[in-house]
What we know:
With about 200 residues, this protein is mainly β.
Amino acid sequence: MLSAATIATAMAQTVYSVNAVGYVKVTVPATNFFLAANPLNLPTNSLAAVLPDVPNNTVVYVLSGGNFQQFTKRASGWTGTGADTARLDPGVGFFIKNAGTTDMTVTFVGEVPQGTQTITYPAGFSMLGSKIPQSGKLETDLGFTGTSGDVVYQLANGTYTQSTRRASAWTPSEPSIDVGNGFFINAKTGGTWTRTFNVNQ
């Protein structure tokens, strides 16, 4: 759920700038994995900036070049090869593992991406999420252009559901994506996912 915390408007002569800042909360089940996606922008979108307050021993897995990079939160900060430069940009899905015995709330804070937002994804497997903090059906509401043969995998309570894009429709149904949730896609061909969004329209 997106909550608009601040709408700041700055005016200089006839030039207007509207920045919407907000937060999104997602729940990561106890001792389980959650397939997340950062829906808001920060100045760097570094791992440490996007997830500054998660409990120690929380683990994040980012898919890069066909392999997973693993990062673990310790008392001293995030550890793992490349943790200092790892990024969780809007539009990129990632796994987060809750090491605790109770559900964990993760809060994303930042600016709502506006204007034309484009995600480029390769053929084969990748992890994606909406660059715009909106929920809805992947193609109908969120503007993803599927190709016949694309397969989308969503994770819920430790179980994957699968949706396949056919020539005329998704089977068994079109996947619905919640704000802050990521998904796997096995894309028949590479492509781009483009949305144009403005808060004040």
